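Dear support,

We are seeing what looks like truncated structure output for some complexes. This example has two components. We would appreciate it if you could run it in full and send us the complete token output so we can diff it against ours.
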Amino acid sequence: MNAVNHMGFIVASYAAAVAVVGALVAWVTFDYRAQRQRLADLEMRGVTRRSTPARSERAIEQAKEKA
Amino acid sequence: MAIADLANPTRFLKFANRTIPWLSGLTVLVFAYGIDQAMLAPDDYQQGATVKIMFLHVPSAWLGMLGWGVMSIAALGTLVWRHPLADVAAKAAAPIGAAFTLLCLVTGSLWGRPEWGTYWVWDARLTSELVLLLLYLGVIALWRTVEDPSRAARAAAILTLVGAIDLPIIKFSVDWWNTLHQGSSVFRVGGSTIDTSILVPLFIMAAAFTLLFFTLHLAAMRNEILRRRVRTLRLMQASAVS
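Here is the complete output from our reference environment:
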């Protein structure tokens, strides 16, 4: 069997593998960055997992507005 | 750290943050060695150089099935113990398993053209593998459709366990039906029919793909835990505003 005749199929297979694995790595990496960014944005706004301070701040703001 | 401790999402995140860089490095090293050995492997006496496609096709087929196996175990965790980390594991594994199944179908098609004279034939092995890809897409769609993660997890778990019946069908399809796809040649009674010079690089590539799968799975689980934290915080924010 002539290897040169079939080189296109071999190269296409390895290119497909690089594309699929690259897409998976990119998905995981960019998704991680996006989630970290969203968490950081929320924390900057005072929304944390124990977000009592956030509610208190809002309550203070509302009280100031009423006053 | 005991394995039971990892059931706690916060501890799991710490474990993932520590483990992912090491696993990534090890994956790259094993891939480099595996590809080197695959390229140095001799051509097959019948298939010639196209046997090099096997080093991608066979591991991706195994990992497509492994992905559904992981999801099935996680589905039991969801339905029996109702553990949120089981939901996370199942959801994170689906796109990775789907990608490997797609790669298996694409490389199989590219291998089939020079060997069989066709890219596709509706034989039992190819069709059952395509069914696996469709099942993956169905589970991913289900996760995206149902907004409440715990409800989505239960629905996806049931579909996963029902879909697990496809795994033995894929494995034994070449024995149960007359297929164009060749019979088992690696794990079979009486030993492998593949020469050691090709079998060893195949196992190294399989190890590399398996490491890649678990590295990606760990990273995707970490992302999913963070995504759930974002969702919880947004719900808390919304309830504080209203």
